Amino acid sequence: MHETQGTGAAATDISTQDMIGVADIGVVGLAVMGENLVLNMEGRGFTVAVFNRTVARVDDFVDGRAAGLRIVGARSPEAFVRALKPPRRVLMMVRAGDPVDQTIEHLLPYLEPGDILMDGGNSHFADTERRAALLRERGLLYVGTGVSGGEEGALHGPSIMPGGHAEAWPHVGPIFQAIAARVADGTPCCDWVGAGGSGHFVKMVHNGIEYGDMQMIGEAYALMRGALGFTPERMSEVFARWNEGRLDSYLVEITARILATKDDATGVPMVDVILDTAGQKGTGKWTSTTALDLGVPAATIAEAVFARCMSALKDERVTASGVLAGPDAAWQGDADAFVADLELALYASKICSYAQGFSLMRLAAVEYGWQLDYGRVAQMWRGGCIIRAAFLDDIKAAYDASPLLPNLLLAPFFRDALAGAQGAWRRVVGAAVTLGIPVPAFSSALAYYDGYRSERLPANLLQAQRDYFGAHTYERVDQPRGKFFHTDWTGEGGDTASTPYTV
After folding, report:
1. 203, 285, 350, 396: which one is catalytic?
2. Nearest to 208 by CA among 101, 268, 290
3. Claim: this prediction has a pTM higher than 0.90
4. What does the radius of gyration of the chain's CA atoms come to, in whole angstroms?
5. Which of 8, 84, 104, 121 is at a distance of 20 to 30 A from 280, taking alpha carbons?
6. From start to end of 290-344, where are the E strands?
7. What is the pLDDT of residues 46-64, one digit of tens each?
């Protein structure tokens, strides 16, 4: 392969020595997202250097999709770094975990103080915090940036969520904002998130909400299929109609398209030839475990993760279906009315799922000392990303009006929306229970709503139980918060009590 410098017309063959300082930015990793981001950058006028651990991928890319473009192929980390203008801006698009650390180690010998390393993969935010601290000691700037939008978004405009060393933003912001998706008024779906691992944290929460969205859409599909007996074609029409109203979103839009697609080999609906076992790459699980770590109720997101785990038990479920009894009930009622209820149930559940995600970000900001702008986060998710939806404009408006809003459910718009939807929502969950159709996301979202609006929960009994068997103490309703008491419930325990603490 010849290393090349793009000229805007046909690429010109140049030697390694001639590659010094010709590229505005470099990308390591030429899988689907990496390749398409490179083409996006080049299409916005930037010269891009590329490198991949498997050098044949560089050859194939430069001689194929990148032929004749301002894209410089490098066959070693040294040549790659040398091709970049200072301060060198390197975007790593490699698999999360050890591959990121290995890529950093391979590049470090050739980088200089002030150069900028960026991780555009789905890294865990704690790893980003660690790497940022390590590279700061070496005089390098580090940015952990969430990138969402899949193959199409990477090529035409993703949502980009960068965080880390703020000094890097003036150098990388113009590139990121140039390639990002834009909302209707032209605002890019990219802005500086905050310090440390906040960019990757926001992307993690995005993915957790994405899990919830997909599960709830799946539950709406299951109810229309299992209760109403709708065909995929008819369900496609329903989702297409929903996409014209309050549920306008990328995931509802593609669901309508998926349900209208037929398998070329058999002619049956494509969705009917796909096995009902779902995969996952871990970000939804990270969202759920982080919520547990921070004590944030995010059951809808967690249930979406568990639903995928349940789907993986395909062989067990097949066996259980012939052994375990379910209800004999069948749907009786007006199908159109139920579809109308289902639309509201999906909308209300979606609001609660987003509320959980934003509450998680709010508590994380306190825990890690980040300054997050939740209205800006909503705007970054408005275009390009997988969860892009019209009602993110309403979320932005809610946080713009009240930046310290403790929970999205308390914003007047969403408070009123949930009040108007709850009758339909309860009818849908009730029907699902009666018919034996599992709706873990719908029902957990409703339980979240009912729990959050409850002045009194049965945790007083739970705390009494803890004090009974473990002397864990309790607070009293007639005493100031923070003052703890213990009862000798059996008459044999004495006055000794455990020190109160919350994990």
Report:
1. 203
2. 290
3. yes
4. 26
5. 104
6. none
7. 999 999 999 999 999 999 9
